[in-house]
Amino acid sequence: MSNILIGIPCLRTGGTEMQTLHLVESLISGGHHCVTVCYFEYDFSMVQLFEKAGSKVVCLSAYGKRPQKLPDVYRFIKSGLKRVVAEYRPKIAHIQYMAPGAMPIFILRKLGLKTIIATVHTDASTYRSLRLVHFLQRRMLTAFTCVTEVAEKSFFGCSKLYNKDFLLAKHNHFTIHNCLPPSYTIANTRQPNIDSEIVIGVVARLVEIKGVDYVMPAFAQILKSQPKCKLMIVGDGYLRNVMEQQQHDFNIPEGKVEWIGSVPYEKIMDYYKQMTIVWVPSRSEGFGLSAIEAMACGCPVVASNTGGLTEIMNDSVDGLLFENGNSDDLAEKTIKLISDEEQTNKMREQAISKAKQFTFDHYQESINSLYSKLTTLTKV
Fold this sequence. Notes:
The protein has 14 helices and 13 strands. With 380 residues, the chain is an alpha/beta fold. A seven-stranded parallel beta sheet has the order 3-2-1-4-5-6-7, sandwiched between helices. Strands 10-9-8-11-12-13 form a six-stranded parallel beta sheet, with helices on both faces. α3 (70-88) crosses α4 (103-110) and α7 (215-225) packs parallel to α12 (327-339). It starts with a strand and ends with a helix.
């Protein structure tokens, strides 16, 4: 089997890092050897998870810092990747985020790697121009993969979901959906207890792109007609102070908001099980892993109608989509869900059924099928 280099700018606690971990776990299960190269910032706990999965981990920056000037960034990454390639002699490189810029791709091609995959975890709206993306896909990458077909269409105008019958060309683009963790147990069924406190949950980094500044205005509206509701926030970030000020400004009682903060990823499922409804109010979302995690636990999700969320959720079937950026619509859709117990029960069952499409086993099968084909290509 092949030696594979996984390149990623950061190893922090986040959805992209966890999906990269699932990639590593899948490849190692298929008999491959992985070295994960983190260019800049990292959390030691995340490094440990990758090592526990069986990957070698090389952090190019001993203290998790990055050079400030672009030429220094290039030289830094080039020097580090050159050492890794010389020591581990990878046959395939898989670049996550395609950041910073396309530097790692150009550098690895200069170092002699011919089989390179790039995975993007956003849609094309985050790019000012797609000229470089199209050049890389057509000229330098064996495969350009997206995490949803919505994202792939935004880059290329068309999409195709990868499966084992996919015939690889010299240069390809396709979608492989993200997945739930291998340890994640999908609920068989779950019935709400409407007579008890209704817990609305948010599991996210408290940053602007996650739309958490809509949360308090929407929750304040809900409390006017649904006083049994409580808000549980799992995660942390620079907008926490803003949200706490919003709580004060909207006169939301302290006992109505539970601030959990950051928790180890393996503990997140315990919090979903305490939630009645989960909000995913992101301004932009390449996939929407938190939505799938909640659905797997039998929690109806109310999410922004943006990006990958519109692909992994069927509005009014296994969840509800609200107008992106509209806290009034978020509150209205949530009140509707709380008020209609029959619809809520149906939605819970449909959510559990949908989550089964995104298991680790499905993802693992796709990844190992792809890498089996790539390994054959490297021998030609």
